[in-house]
Amino acid sequence: MLIRYILVVFVYFACVLSPLFPWFPSAHQSTAYINTYTAVFFVTVIIIGLLLLPERRMERSMRASWGESIAWAICGIFILYVLQIAAALINNLILGQPLSSEHTAGIVKMAKTAPLFIFAVSVIGPILEEIVFRKILFGSLKKVIGFIFPL
């Protein structure tokens, strides 16, 4: 188990640091960069999934029903929109920042160029982060130190 956890952490950090590797395409908004990084995310989630395959058990009492899961997902999307609008208004009206920026334009360009990239960094990225930090690092520390905080 320890070796698998070390491999998971290694693969995760290799994914995060992959743009620093010499073979990685340069220019953050180029099509080659976006496609390569998308492929790296998908390969990373597959490798980590295979490494954690022996631990795929989940207690039935902790699982939400399909209806509850769908309801939380839909509510989460609407809450996200409301919070995003509120953040934009605060940023614009209180802090005086423009609503559009060069960074936003770059993200929109990336989304149009490679929609899978947006999926990779917005869905796969957080899943990988939760696995590495909450399950492996915090979970392992909890077994050793005995944290009283809930996971």
Radius of gyration: 19 Å
Q: Beta-strand percentage?
A: under 5%
The helicity comes to: over 70%
Helix/strand/pairing category: mainly alpha
Question: Could you explain the architecture of this structure?
Answer:
The chain is an all-alpha fold. It has five helices and no strands. The protein has helices spanning 2-17, 31-51, 66-94, 102-113, 115-145. The longest helix has 31 residues, at 115-145. The radius of gyration is 19 Å and the shape is globular. The model has no long low-confidence stretch (mean pLDDT 82).
Secondary structure layout:
Elements: H1 2-17, H2 31-51, H3 66-94, H4 102-113, H5 115-145
Helix pairs in contact: 1-2, 1-5, 2-5, 4-5
Structure summarized in a few sentences:
This protein is an all-alpha fold and 151 residues long. Helices cover 72% and strands 0% of the residues.
